[in-house]
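[step 3/7] fold_predict: job queued, chain A
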Amino acid sequence: MDFLIQKISIDHDFFPDSLRTIKNPPQELYYCGKINKQENCLAIVGARICSKYGQECCLEIGSQIVDAGLTIVSGLAKGIDSFAHLAALRKNSRTIAVLGTAIDNIYPKENLPLAKEILKNNGLIISEYAPGQATAPYSFAERNRLIAGLALGTLVIEAKENSGSLLTAKATKEQGKKVFAIPGNIHSETSKGCHALIKDGAKLVQNKNDILQELKINSLPLFLKNDKPITEISSDEEKIIKTLEKEPLQIEDLIKITGLAPSKIMSLLSVLEIKNKIIDLGDNTYCLNRN
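[step 4/7] structure written:
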């Protein structure tokens, strides 16, 4: 791991103010990147196995939230968490990942390239677990209070009835903050959690205005926006680009031709989308962006 991991204690002047007052605040944090005493954030969480609809909602509303000047906080998990971070990175904006593992043990492993892109783009990765510390069964549930704690409110995009995302929503409500949820297909299992939140008083979200009005935010100055596009290409990314030079290909074909592991292919494709090098055509098919 080539991350520079630093530590900050709760009595330090630059410890995040929003985490000082939550129930059971972390006494110290381990972090990589830029940590701020004060920052206006929105948490976006959701299903690890998400639908195309969920992905599109996350990228669209996440992009709108970034344009309004809020920093996106999520958990670097598969699915909606990953797309929440991607929404910020596509706008060359800062995003914060809160881990349920130590930073020297990024989970899932296939999101390691995504973690590196977050840091390259003035972002932040934090954990309350020391380097080398083993991950306990309760670690991911425990970190949800930190995701909620850093944010002004939490948006849930697709969640099953017993989803971990609902624990983040519960922590948000217990902290006296706003909970938001996007409705979905009434026949979908990943809509049931969001619909339950809406029935329980969460704000139904169709666009950024539903969130900004509830938070009484008109527009905020963008924080540490990186105006320089991310252009550096790794050798594995170059391998995918060359493979797509002749024609669009499905993920299965990319795996066969490049010899890269399926999990790594998925992560690299996400990063290449951030860099505007490829386009997702749907149905697991990708082509080069020749514009």
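[step 5/7] annotate
Residues 30 and 97 are 12 Å apart (CA to CA).
The first strand starts at residue 6 and ends at 9.
exit 0
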